[in-house]
Amino acid sequence: MYHPRLKGNYYEMGNRYGGLIYKKGFRFPKVSKEKLEYGRECTPILFDFYPEVIEEIKGFADGCQVTYEEVSSFLFSIGVFDMPAQCSIFAAYNGSEMLMGRNFDMTLDLKKYTESSLVCPKGRYRYIGHSDVFIGKVDGINEKGLAVAMTYVPGNNKYPGVNFYFIIRFILENCSNVEEAIKILSKVQTSTSNNYLLADSTGGMAVAEVTPSSIFIRRPSIGEEFIVCTNHFVSKEMEDRQELNRINWSKSQERYQTIQDNLRRSTQIDIEKAKGIMSNSEGHVCLNLKEEKFGTLYSLILNLNELSIYRAEGRPNRSIYRKDDRLFNEVTKRPI
């Protein structure tokens, strides 16, 4: 896993990172005509939503010596033309601290592309975000103690719109709490169906169940201080907006139930208990599908009040969780 630190304006961040990986031998993959055409449809939508990231993509493209169209179309197409990640996430409040657990499951050969970036964009909130692709993010925590992570939900996803990679980043850079993030998700034109689990340091939490044409905000059940999502919609309002026959191969419902059961049994959730939940291989939370060569690439436990991350780089039942204080140190040394 790479651990880059990016700061400055958007073009500078993109150009620095693109140039760095180009010097290390990275060469941008060829992008099909179909994806290029799809990217052209999505670009004006992204520009209206998040014009700054257009500059970052241009900077990255210049650093990698390719065109903006190639980079943007590649990013827009993930989750639309390709099989995306299958993940497990929860948030839980113990009365004084908000914790989030997150396993990122993907084809095993993508592990070498995973990254954990400290990003300090000029004039925006600083954050640590994780991904399996440059520029975009699939989860993260920002300096305000807001965390967001996504899971993919199978559906009819060939709509022009903003990819989850950019939505996650926009939320981390611009939102300070769950309700602000929900407002963003309610307005953006999305291209894929996803769950977005949101949590903040005040104890707020929700799952936004999102398709290109609809959104439902799911809250914790009455009497419970936690919420869970895997790779299917849970609410009755959204259950017919997914392709159920494409869900079970990755054990989505088993993973969901395993996490739910463990959280209900935990009288006081803490970091060690959270690690145990995300390391559970019997309930497939720590995923290892040998035939498909698919499994957990990394695992996170976030403490939103301390701005700390405990990260296992690999399957958590075989890897050590190591503490990452980069965001805390950045905020402490350079307060706004």
From TrEMBL:
GO molecular function: hydrolase activity
Keywords linked to the UniProt accession: Hydrolase
Residues in the signal sequence: none
Highest taxon, organism lineage: Bacteria
InterPro entries, alphabetized: C45_proenzyme-like, Ntn_hydrolases_N, Peptidase_C45, Peptidase_C45_hydrolase
One Pfam family in the UniProt entry: AAT
NCBIfam families per the UniProt record, alphabetical: C45_proenzyme (NF040521)
Name of the protein described by the UniProt record: Choloylglycine hydrolase
Native source species: Bacillus wiedmannii
